[in-house]
Amino acid sequence: MASWPAQTKYISHPTTRIDAVPKVTGKAHYSSDIQADGWLYGMILRSKWPAAKISGINLDKARQVPGIQAAVKVRDGEFTVRFYGEELAAVAGTSKQACLDALRAIEVKAEPLPFVVLEDDARKSDAPKVWDGSSNVSPGRPREKGAVDQAFSECAAVIEGFYTTPVQIHHPMETHGNTVSWTDDGLTAWSSTQGISSVRDSFAGALQLDQSKVRVLTDFMGGGFGAKFSAGVEGVLAARLSREAKAPVRLMLTRFDQGLAVGNRPSSFQKIKMGALADGTLHAYDGENYGTAGIGAGGDSGGGGGGADIPMPYLYTVANSRVKQSAVAVNAGSSRAFRAPGHPPASYGMECAMDDLAVKLGMDPVEFRLKNDPNEIRRRELTIGADRFGWKEKYRPPGTSPGPVKVGVGCAGAAWPAGGPNRRTQGEAQINPDGSVEFRLGVQDIGTGTKTVIAVVAAEMLGLKPEQIGVKVGDTRFPPGPGSGGSTTCSSVSPTVYDICAKALEQLQAQSGIADARGENWFAACKKLGVTPLTVSGQWQPGLSSSPAYGVQFAEVAVDTETGLVTVRKVVAVHDCGLIIDTLTLESQINGGVIMGMGYALYEERVMDDLSGVLLNPNFETYKLPGIADVPEIQIVLLNMPERGVIGIGEPATVTTAGAIANAVANAIGARVPGLPITPAKILNALGRAPAPLST
Amino acid sequence: MKAFEYATARSTDGARQLLSDNGAYLAGGNDLLGLLKEYLVSADILVNIKSLPGLNQIERGDKFWTIGALVTVAELEHDAELANAFPGLHDAAAEIASPQIRNVASVGGNLAQHSRCWYFRHRDTVCLKKGGDLCYARHGENRYHSLFTGNDCISPVVSSLATTFAALDATAVVLRNGAETRLGMNALYQKAWTEATAHNSLAPADLILRVEIPTARPRSAYMQVSDKHTFDWALVSCAAAADVVDGKLKQPRVALGSISPVPHQVEAANDFLDGKTLDDDVASQAADQILKGAQPLEHNAYKIPMARALIRRTLLKLKG
Q1: Do both A669 and A621 map to the same domain?
Q2: What are the two backbone dihedrals, phi and then psi, of residue A509, each rounded to the nearest 5 degrees?
Q3: Same domain membership, residue A662 and residue A603
Q4: Residues in A touching B119 (Cβ below 8 Å)
């Protein structure tokens, strides 16, 4: 079986991204930068009703707006819209302003319907039905292990908590969208996607085209986080506009659009009762959770449904457990897979319960976890992390830090069991007589450094430098690769490149007669190819990658108990991902995961208005994301485990941050803030400082 | 946004003429362009006032300083003498938005900016402030809204310069109907207290020319709390200013932002503080007076303890 080299020059060392210079100089053209010949702007008209029966859409006046070259409806006839922002029609024109004017000229006949946008309202028996004839609340699948009720009576300590997480919106810096050119010859889409193959197939399916007639290109794209696997309504509309206008149409969503209809992480409302025996062994767990995936989970997502269910109980072994979960439909945009679907809310809820129970037991929270965590790697990470963080010196009983600005510490753990490599990943390389080489893989680099990973592995195997490796990805004409979801790209691509290189060296040896074509022999061997380049195909091979990954994070916070302001001072992130390929892009992933987890902990929240049914924060003014001044010192501790092969890190890196911060806040102030995001308002409320509101 | 004409004014008279019936003055444009893009206001013509002579100066005087309306927030932030004379004003300027915005934001524009209420700013809600018949925030998501109001709208003033100017007892000089009118911060925002659709007392053709700040209060301070550490609106802001003679406050003033449609000031509290030696107890008593009568709604009661802490801390900063 194949195995990675024991001594490495590039693998497990830091390599600067091979595309760092074009990225920071603006030479890299992202999907939203594409300017195809004769391109038009495209824009979407969205429902301003949270629920309505649409009986007619008239595009005549829109077509008359100067500059408008095409206008299409999402569908003909009568239909129902079920959330504010659902797509109704689209226009293409020579300027943004022409499109904006045209959208305002479209006439829509609509009969507003009753709606409900908040989870707790939707659960009421008399709530308007999001879907005719079916309950807003899914029946759920209760499951029970052991004898839970009796087990609680045997516990030395029992806690009950209600831990909630909000709907988190996918807000990649580059919004969803494509430039689409659809002619008689076929369809070309420059897509901002994390899955060029799934986008190709969804275009072909939606427009009834041969898959061979659709080409999807993604050279640089600005993030997806699980929401960008499909052509989407916006892609199909762009294609139809292109067909009608006989010109390429660039339809990138506005930031306003982005908040409405292209994905989010479901909310969770977790009622957790948990008990432990006197020796600290977890013994009984009763968890009930409901959350909303909007009108339904998984709308148009090729990357997993992103449903409202979460793994419960998370991570730790409990002999007796009962779990009941349900999804609550509301009139709001559909959820999609979002970076480690289900795990950040699960980690947050369980880890809060763990700390609350440790406090009640009078046990150190790290010791309590070590006792109940069945996973050897994570126990090791807990121990290493506690040492690096200085847990023993820093931990003090909740609320006992002196002064109005209280310091606290917390930790939380992760597991990312999903995925595993895509075993059908393929690729090719063309090796030229002058020694230059180009690798082509039908994957995409979603910002995680996939191109660099390819260069690092190839350089290692061929004895060249990473900058000597040409890398092309993001084209459905290349040998097929996986969608970038489930933290699987690195573990799919690395063994594939390994295989291509192994085969290339074999063939070079055969053709050149040089026993070892690597390194200093490379150019001499290539020269022997004469005038014909060598092309080599390879595919994923077993033995070089695996799953899952774990991870533990520690957080230190300072909470101003008079103003409620939370400052995260430090996060220590201890992570494993098997054999490390590039330490720099790996650390970058973890930094990003921590910062995103911090946004989830302290700032991010979709705010729906129950009276009007609209999204109140469709912008970065009030949908708050961490800025650099909010970001703490992040100390990364990596466990390099070459014997496990390559494992992805994208998702586990963000799972634990919110739980760790929430526990640090509770430790600081001596009170549990019930629910994310932990805002100053919620801190002051949890401390009992805010008076009761006047009745209105 | 709707199409508009664009013209550059070279004199204040010219600006007024160019404005015609449905125009808007354009300086930094941070607020105006957002309003235009969301179709919240419309204008047939934007009159660029950035070339008006004499309005971009900070003039230092013995009795008062004059800040031209076109002085940028960044210039306020980076003027070392100003930071020495009015430390509270420096601190307020430095907290506004982001460096990029501060580089173009003008003092006049900061004072004249409209409501940030997310119902008002939403393209598909017609709230009281937009001429509708309902304040959605009153019964809805009011975490960012006022504790005090004189009408049914609870959208607060968010200009942190206004809060600070109020504490410094500064006066805005406004060109109105061809004549200069002097408006204190109370007067500048008074209309928003009584009328839901107003966010200040300025008529469309009124033009803020400058702000005059008396030097009578050499000690000043400004603090705010936001959800985030930078580039975020204040949940509550507080400014205080006074002279301190023999350890005693002289002519003290305290003003708060983001809790009322006007910079929130309580003259009785200012009177109470006058002549007092600052300590925690005095500051707390002042806070009680300033926040008396607050009307918390479902989601903004936290602003009361937050404001109390800010009043105390800001006042104590005056001790130096």
Answers
A1: yes
A2: -60, -45
A3: yes
A4: 609, 612, 616
Q: How confident is the model over B154-187, as pLDDT tens digits? A: 999 999 999 999 999 999 999 999 999 999 999 9
Nearest CA in chain B to A606: B141
Indicate the CATH number for domain B58-113+154-317. 3.30.390.50
Q: B99 in helix, strand or coil?
A: helix
A359 and A461 share one domain: no
Residues A459 and A474 in one domain: yes
Whether residue A236 is contained in a domain is answered as: yes
Tens of pLDDT, residues B207-240: 999 999 999 999 999 999 999 999 999 999 999 9
- Domain at B1-53: CATH architecture: 2-Layer Sandwich (3.30)
Residues of A in contact with B305 (CB under 8 A): 562, 684, 689-690
Query: Is A141 a domain residue?
Result: no
Please state, in angstroms and rounded to a whole number, the distance separating the CA atoms of residues A622 and A601.
Answer: 15
| Residue of A607, A624, A681 with shortest CB distance to B232 | A624
C-alpha pair distances (Å), B216 with each of A306, B85, B167, B242: 62, 10, 11, 7
What lies within 8 Å, CB to CB, of A239 at 6+ separation is: A180, A182, A187, A189, A203, A206, A207, A231, A249
Inspect the interface and report whether the beta carbons of A689 and B232 lie closer than 8 Å. Answer: no
Full residue range of the structural domain in which residue A556 is found: 264-418+547-686
Q: Over the stretch A159-181, which tens digit does the pLDDT of each residue have?
A: 999 999 999 999 999 999 999 99
Domain end residue (candidates: A507, A539, A571): A539
Q: Which of A229, A175, A182, A239 is nearest to A201 (CA)?
A: A229
Using CA atoms, how far residue A614 sits from A111, A193, A258, A260, B202, in Å, is 17, 27, 14, 9, 31
Which pLDDT tens digit goes with each residue over B233-283? 999 999 999 999 999 999 999 999 999 999 999 999 999 999 999 999 999
CA–CA distance, A202 with A198 (Å, rounded to integer): 6
**Inter-chain CB proximity A690 and B229 less than 8 Å:** no
The per-type count for chain B, helices as H runs and strands as E runs, is: 13, 11
CATH number at residue A385: 3.30.365.10
Residue A133 pLDDT: 85
Contact assignment for B228 to A627 by CB distance below 8 Å: yes
Are B230 and A627 within 8 A, CB to CB? yes
Quick one: pLDDT at residue A1?
A: 77
Closest by CA position to A450, among listed A497, A417, A418: A497
CA distances from B37 to A228, A612, B31, B126 (A): 28, 21, 10, 16
Among A252, A285, A305, the domain-final residue is: A252
B304 CB near a chain A CB, below 8 Å? yes
Provide the residue ranges of all domains of chain B, joining segments of one domain with +. Answer: 1-53, 58-113+154-317
Asked if ipTM goes beyond 0.90, one says yes
Distance between B235 CA and the closest CA of chain A, angstroms:
9
Residues A188, A71, single domain; the answer is yes
Report yes or no: A551 and A382 within 8 Å, Cβ to Cβ: no
* A680/B225 Cβ within 8 A: yes
Q: Can you tell me the distance from the alpha carbon of A220 to that of A450, in angstroms, rounded to the nearest whole number?
A: 11
User: From the list A630, A679, A690, which residue is nearest B304 (CB)?
Assistant: A690
Contact across the interface for A689 and B138, Cβ inside 8 Å = no
A79, A228: one domain: yes
Q: Please give the mean pLDDT across all residues of chain A.
A: 96
Interface of A with B (CB under 8 A): 48, 84, 97, 100, 256, 560, 562-565, 567, 602-603, 607, 609-612, 614, 616-617, 621-622, 624, 626-627, 629-630, 679-682, 684-685, 689-694, 696
Neighbour tally for B216: CB within 10 Å: 15
Q: Which chain B residues are Cβ-neighbours of A85 within 8 angstroms? A: none
Contact at CB, A562 and B305, closer than 8 angstroms: yes
DSSP H or E run through A681: helix A680-686
Domain count, chain A: 3
